[in-house]
Amino acid sequence: MVSRVPPGRVTTYGDVAAMAGRPGAARAVGNILARADRPGLPYHRVIAAGGALGGYSQLALKRALLAAEGVEAGPRRVREFARLRWCGRIRP
Length: 92
What we know:
Number of domains: 1
Number of strands: 2
CATH class: Mainly Alpha
Shape: globular
Largest sheet: 2 strands, parallel
CATH topology: Arc Repressor Mutant, subunit A
Order of helices and strands: EHHEHH
CATH architecture: Orthogonal Bundle
Oligomer: single chain
Radius of gyration: 12 Å
Helix content: 25-40%
CATH superfamily: Winged helix-like DNA-binding domain superfamily/Winged helix DNA-binding domain
């Protein structure tokens, strides 16, 4: 699911869980991603509920990776979260 998140968009741990057929398993997704180390996966595009950056050991790096894709983030949250949120569907 994480590999499907388009550049310049973000999704939440809960969204990933729902897309994987496990609604309500956001914490499990977070635990899995915390241990994952597959090169090339855009882990930085997965954020906490409500647009909070959380769940990444290096928030400055996460913020920089998102910025490189045109996603602005303040100290703790992604700006324009509702517009940038991706839940597994391509917008028309």
